[in-house]
């Protein structure tokens, strides 16, 4: 399992600087009810919370 989660969304409450995510876990879902994403543009991070 990944030890380091990177994120560049500095407006997120979990953003820990230097593009690191400080959330204890992350939740990523497929866009538009697709069952299989084929690239990152077809996914969303549901862990995001506005700072």
Low-confidence stretches: none
The fraction of residues assigned to DSSP E strands is 5-15%
What oligomeric arrangement do these chains adopt? Answer: single chain
What separation lies between the terminal Cα atoms? 27 Å
Outline:
Helix content is 0%, strand content 12%. By secondary structure, it is low in regular secondary structure. Pfam families: DUF1540.
Q: What features would you describe in this structure?
A:
There is one protein chain. Helices cover 0% and strands 12% of the residues. The protein has 51 residues and is mostly loops. It has a two-stranded antiparallel sheet. The N and C termini lie far apart (27 Å).
Give the secondary structure arrangement, pairings included.
Blueprint: E1 28-30, E2 43-45
What keyword list fits this structure?
little secondary structure; DUF1540; DUF1540 domain-containing protein
């Amino acid at each position: 399992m990944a030890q380091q989660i990177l994120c560049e969304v500095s407006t997120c409450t979990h953003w820990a600087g230097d593009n690191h995510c400080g959330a204890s876990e992350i939740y990523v879902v497929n866009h538009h009810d697709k069952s299989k994403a084929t690239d990152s543009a077809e996914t969303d991070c549901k862990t995001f919370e506005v700072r």
